[in-house]
UniProtKB/TrEMBL annotation:
The chain crosses the membrane at residues 21-45. One of its GO terms (molecular function) is metalloendopeptidase activity. Residues 198-293 form the M23ase beta-sheet core domain. InterPro entries: Cell_wall_metabolism_enzyme, Dup_hybrid_motif, M23ase_b-sheet_dom. This is M23ase beta-sheet core domain-containing protein. Keywords: Membrane, Transmembrane, Transmembrane helix.
């Protein structure tokens, strides 16, 4: 068998002569090996291309999953921030309600042990299975709405209590001294200087010189100086047409324009002016006219 090989380098054909069976067999083996090598190479190239395509697809999927994870994290963070803001609103409302509650307990003079707004109220009960999952957003909105409603109700109650307390604060009641006794009542009596009958327009309370003289109601000082017959006089305007006077003081402790509270010490007892000894001459004036102080003194 003759095999002619053509080469572009030499420019002329090359002739190979195969005559023996051994040579033919070697040539056949070479051809088979060469064909196998070409096939393997093609398979490897194909697999490489397929693997490269699979890797690219997997990378793309990983990228998408990463984007989804980041978006989920962002949404979760936004939800957490929103819940934190709502929780802050609830805490602020709760703090205002606690402060308002404590204030009302003080105003109404309630038992702090019974109405303690700093401690959590007692709650409990058996666990009930099978309930549906809670919508936290709706529940938070409902709690905030309820807290706002309760706060408004407590504000109204506070105004009512303050108004009531102010009425009690400025209404004359009680004795103008801590210790002592009544030395003269309102009405007709014998004048201690002339011995004649005379109408006494107040009540006299006697005690040791220098004893405290108290305001029987809150108000504004409209006189704090000497006045004929009264000696050192303190006069308080309580509003609603009520004025009280405290005469014969040793020393006045307040000035005109001062605001005083019920029970506040306004002067020290003395015997200035037209007086026979240490006492306070106490008058209650209603709409410009002296009235009997006894019913106010007896009121607690």
């Amino acid at each position: 068998m003759d095999i002619i090989l053509l080469s572009k380098f030499r420019g002329r054909p090359c002739r190979v002569q195969i005559g023996s069976p051994v040579q033919f067999m070697m040539l056949s083996v070479f051809a088979v090996l060469f064909s196998g090598a070409l096939g393997m190479m093609g398979y490897w190239v194909g697999q490489s291309q397929a693997s490269s395509s699979s890797v690219s697809s997997i990378q793309q999927e990983i990228k998408l999953q990463r984007q989804l994870i980041n978006q989920t994290r962002f949404n979760a963070r936004a939800d957490i921030d929103a819940l934190a803001a709502r929780l802050g609103e609830i805490q602020a409302h709760a703090m205002r309600l606690n402060a308002l509650g404590q204030k009302l307990v003080t105003i109404a003079k309630l038992d702090r042990g019974e109405f303690n707004f700093e401690d959590n109220p007692g709650l409990g009960g058996p666990d009930e299975p099978g309930l549906q999952e809670m919508d936290f957003g709706s529940e938070i909105d409902a709690v905030i709405s309820e807290l706002e409603d309760r706060e408004q109700q407590l504000r109204v109650l506070e105004n009512i209590l303050i108004s009531s307390n102010m009425q009690e604060e400025v209404f004359p009641a009680g004795r103008p001294i801590k210790r002592g006794w009544i030395s003269s009542y309102y009405g007709t009596r014998t004048n201690p200087f002339s011995g004649k009958l005379q109408f006494h327009k107040g009540m006299d309370f006697a005690a040791k010189s220098g004893s405290d003289v108290l305001a029987v109601a809150g108000g504004v000082i409209t006189w704090s100086s000497k006045r004929y017959g009264y000696g050192n006089l303190v006069e308080i305007n309580h509003g609603n047409g009520y004025i009280t006077r405290y005469g014969h003081n040793k020393t006045n402790l307040v000035s005109v324009g001062d605001t005083v509270k019920k029970g506040q010490v306004i002067s020290l007892m003395g015997s200035t002016g037209r007086s026979t000894g240490p006492h306070v001459h106490f008058e209650v004036i209603k709409n410009g006219r002296q009235i009997n102080p006894q019913k106010f003194v007896q009121r607690k």
